[in-house]
């Protein structure tokens, strides 16, 4: 089966400081991969490089076999790549539904109502607040809108950077309940998370990034059975 997202020997960084050192990663269609590891070791840089916000110095990036490592950002979006960055980056004066519709600008008008219903099914709270301005929402609700706007794009590959960052435990549970449903959809997902325990019951594969390299990759069960990973990255839990 052709990988939905394939990254091979990717090298990238900022100015003269390398951050990614030959990263390779494949994600199959219909699956969710979790990217875990210490802060400051390249997880966000990997997502930015895949989406074109940070230029790749060398290596290959492919969406269903299509090479995009030299493509412009909008060309990568057109190829089916969606990147939900840290934070929410919403239009505060616009309503929840208007923000969601902004994510569907490449889709036909006939597809938008169905896409909206999909988002509201995953995040029912947004359906209750569809007419409210984004500036009036809580942090967790804003995060849901950010993820929902990414879903509205209808992309083939969706990357989400730290969906639970700075949120209360109850809101985190609601967001991950939504992601649990998304992982069964016919898309490929790459989710960055500082706390890997939140993804063990959701992700099909967990990849450990350390010092700009993918140091380990396996299933959630393999993570639970690896004493070295548990002790080094999860504090023994």
UniProtKB/TrEMBL annotation:
What sections of the protein cross the membrane? none
Keywords, ordered alphabetically: Amino-acid transport, ATP-binding, Nucleotide-binding, Transport
- ABC transporter domain residues: 5-236
SUPFAM superfamilies, sorted? P-loop containing nucleoside triphosphate hydrolases (SSF52540)
Please verify whether the record's keywords include tRNA-binding: no
InterPro entries from the xrefs? AAA+_ATPase, ABC_transporter-like_ATP-bd, ABC_transporter-like_CS, BCAA_Transport_ATP-bd_LivF, P-loop_NTPase
Q: Which family does it belong to?
A: Belongs to the ABC transporter superfamily.
State the name under which the record lists this protein. ABC transporter ATP-binding protein
């Amino acid at each position: 089966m052709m990988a939905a997202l394939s990254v091979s020997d990717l090298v990238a960084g900022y100015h003269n400081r390398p951050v990614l050192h030959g990263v390779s990663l494949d994600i199959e269609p219909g699956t969710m991969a979790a990217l875990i590891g210490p802060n400051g070791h390249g997880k966000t840089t990997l997502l930015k490089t895949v989406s074109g916000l940070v230029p790749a110095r060398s290596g290959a990036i492919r969406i269903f076999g299509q090479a995009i490592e030299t493509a412009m950002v909008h060309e990568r979006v057109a190829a089916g790549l969606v990147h939900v960055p840290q934070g929410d980056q919403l239009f505060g004066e616009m309503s929840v539904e208007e923000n969601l519709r902004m994510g569907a600008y490449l889709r036909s008008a006939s597809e938008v109502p169905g896409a909206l219903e999909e988002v509201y099914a995953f995040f029912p709270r947004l359906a209750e607040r569809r007419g409210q301005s984004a500036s009036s929402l809580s942090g967790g609700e804003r995060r849901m809108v950010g993820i929902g706007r990414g879903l509205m794009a209808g992309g083939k590959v969706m990357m989400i950077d730290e969906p639970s960052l700075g949120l209360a435990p109850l809101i985190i549970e609601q967001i991950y309940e939504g992601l649990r449903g998304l992982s069964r959809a016919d898309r490929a997902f790459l989710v960055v998370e500082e706390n890997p325990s939140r993804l063990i019951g959701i992700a099909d594969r967990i990849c450990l990034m350390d010092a700009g390299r993918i140091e380990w990759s396996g299933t959630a069960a393999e993570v639970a059975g690896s004493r070295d990973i548990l002790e080094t990255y999860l504090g023994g839990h």
